[in-house]
Amino acid sequence: MPFVDKTRSTDFWEPGAFGPVCQLYGIPTLPTAFPTTIAGSGAYDSGLVCADGFKAMALGLTADQSGSMQITRYLDPNGLVLQGGPVSIALVGGQAKLINITDALPFAYYRVQITNGAGSLMTITNACLLLNAA
Fold first, then answer.
1. Would you say which domain of life the source belongs to (predicted)?
2. Which side of the chain, N or C, has fewer Cβ within a 10 Å radius?
3. What digits encode the pLDDT tens for the residues 100-124?
């Protein structure tokens, strides 16, 4: 066997990054099912959800009423050790809104909360949660 490889370098491809990342797209099974409606002046709380090692996340939705959306991260399964502060955004009726969490702080559990700021039924559409291991 020769000491020099005669294969052309153009036969190989070396990626410029570390490859694709694992991600979960859609609404996963949550302790409390993700709602399509929230009663007037009501609220939704997902309960604690295991992050399964994902480090970054984005939650987006469109609500037809004003309100707020919040994600809180925790280090423990009881939701007692807060990681950073809650990340929240105001919801504006008819506008798509998005929360991105990309600060690389480690967390093991998270909770999603949505509050209807109006006195009438809130309808939620286009809801999606993206969890990313990058």
1. Bacteria
2. N
3. 999 989 999 999 999 999 999 999 9
